[in-house]
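WARN no homologs supplied; continuing
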Amino acid sequence: MIRNVLGSVVALVGAAAAVQSPFHTWYNDRLGRDYRVQDLFDGITGVSSSVLGSMLAPFLFAALVTLVGVVLRSRWVVAVAGLVVIGFTVLWMVRLGQAAGSLTVGGDGSGLRWGVAQALAGGVLLLLGALVMSGRRGVRQRRGAEPYPTPPDDRPDTWPPTQEPGPAAYTSPGPEPEADPYTGPGRHRAARDDEDTAESPVQDGSTHPVQGEQRERDRYHPPHP
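OK structure emitted
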C-alpha cells in the first residue's frame, strides 16, 4: 500500500513536469510548443504549430495514461507513459540534430535549453514511479489469503467406509477411591448399627442389654403386691 502511494506521487510529479516542459524554451529561444508533432517524422522546420498539434500533444497523452495507471495501480501502464515521454523527446533531439547539424549546450543561452531537460526528467520520474509501485499483484494476494487456513484431513479416504469406534472405546475407568486423610484417634470407629447394638454397662454390673433395661424399669417402678 505504501509503495503504491509513493510510486503514484512520483509518477504524477513526472507527468506534470512533462506536460509543463513544452512551455519552456527547448532550443535557442524557441519554445517546445512551437515544434509540430509531424516535424518529428518529416523533419524540423521553422513553421510554428498550434498548441494541440505541438509537442504538448504526446505529453498530454502520456499524462492521461499515467492517471489511468495510478487509478488501476498498474505499474506497466505508468511505465508506458514514461517511455512515451522519453521516446518523443529523444526523437525530437535526433530530428533537430539532423536539421542543425549538431546539438550543443551553450552558456550564453544557445543550444539545448531547460525545456528538454525537464521533459527527460519527467520521463525518468515516470519510470521510477513504476518501479516503486507494487502493482495489483500484492493486492490480490492479500485479499485471497485466508486468515485461518483449514487444517488438512489426515484420515485416509477408504471405500467402503470403516465403522467409527463406539463410545465404549473412549470411556475411561472411574476415579480411584481417595485415601482417608484423617489419621488421628477414632479413625476406625464402629458403624452406627454396631453402636446401637453395642453392650451398654449398667450400674448393677450386668452387661446384657435386655437384662439391664429390665432392672432399670424395676428400680423406678417396683411391681405391685
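The CA atoms of residues 19 and 59 lie 5 Å apart.
OK
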